[in-house]
Amino acid sequence: MANANPLPVNPYPPGKPPQPSSNSTTIVVFILAILGGVLLLVIGCVVAIVFAMSAALAPAVSSARDAARNAESMNNLKRIGVAIHNYHDTYRQLPPAYLTVNEREPALSWRVSILPHLEQAALFDRIDKSKRWNELPNGQYNSQAIEDYHSPLDPATATDTSYVGIVGPSAAFSADSVQTIAKIRDGTSNTICVIELQNSEINWMEPRDLTIDEAVAAIKNSPNKKVNVLMLDGSVKPLDHGLISPGELRGMMTIDGGEQPPSGF
Predict the structure, then answer these.
(1) CB pairs under 8 A, 24+ apart, for 87-92?
(2) Residue 187, by phi and psi: left (phi above 0), alpha (psi -120 to 50) or beta?
């Protein structure tokens, strides 16, 4: 007698797993495609935001970096100013424009003279004062970079000085006469003795600086809006050369011309 309630027949053959329908596969692929697109869109947005933020912050970061380097350069000038005054306290005179050999032939810069007052006494003692800056044994020392003599803003080689003196009979550094603080009749706070000059092409040992007229031209032609200058009282000031005339600049570089600095300087 036939069974009135036969067991249901297994729709899948033994050993063969159930296969998803083609409709199910299509739905899964579609969902994965959507999720992938969303993920790529999110990544793209994040990357775009990062680039936009980097572009927006780059000028601020560069400005902050330059400000820090400028502060370091001004500190170099302050240290040079202190060294000049310490030299004056020791020898009762300002450093001469240069040390000489063979009857007043320029040999070594005033920057060599103040080395002991910049914690470089050992180097100063090794330099042969009877030889020129580029003669042996001094040639081996002029290739040594002195951190106090090179601005971090200066792209030139580190052995070139970024700080040049104003030289001449009426300037702070003279080769013709002994200059003293007492001779600065215009006042030490009104007299420029050293200026910052990038790409000077002057080795720190070389007995070469700028006359008053050369210094005026260098400042007026500077690509920088402001030029750091060292006053004879040891203070350092950023000079906006667009607000000062060549005549006023010239007057600030002489020691006894009777000129007064422009108002607001």
Answers:
(1) 87/113, 87/114, 87/117, 88/180, 88/181, 90/117, 92/180
(2) left
In this predicted structure, what is the pLDDT of residue 1? 47
Which three-class secondary structure state does DSSP give residue 198?
Answer: coil
Q: pLDDT band for position 29 (50/70/90)? A: low
Q: How far is CA 55 from CA 30, 46, 59, 62, 222, in A?
A: 37, 14, 8, 11, 29
State how far the Cα of 154 lies from the Cα of 161, in Å rounded to an integer: 9
The pLDDT assigned to 44 comes to 67
Alpha-carbon distance 145 to 43, whole Å?
48
Cβ atoms of residues 250 and 216 within 8 Å? yes
Residue 188 in tokens = 């030490």
Other CB atoms within a 10 A radius of the CB of residue 72 amount to 13
pLDDT at residue number 205 = 98
Burial of 148 (0-12, 13-18, 19+ CB in 10 A): buried
Global pTM value: 0.77
Q: Which two tokens stand for residue 128?
A: 């042969």
Q: In the chain, at which residue ranges do the beta strands (DSSP E only) sit?
A: 98-101, 105-109, 163-167, 192-196, 210-211, 226-231, 236-240
Which ranges in 131-257 belong to alpha helices (H)? 212-220, 246-253
Give the lowest-confidence range in 56-65, 101-110, 145-154: 56-65
Q: How far apart are CA 29 and CA 88, in angstroms?
A: 86
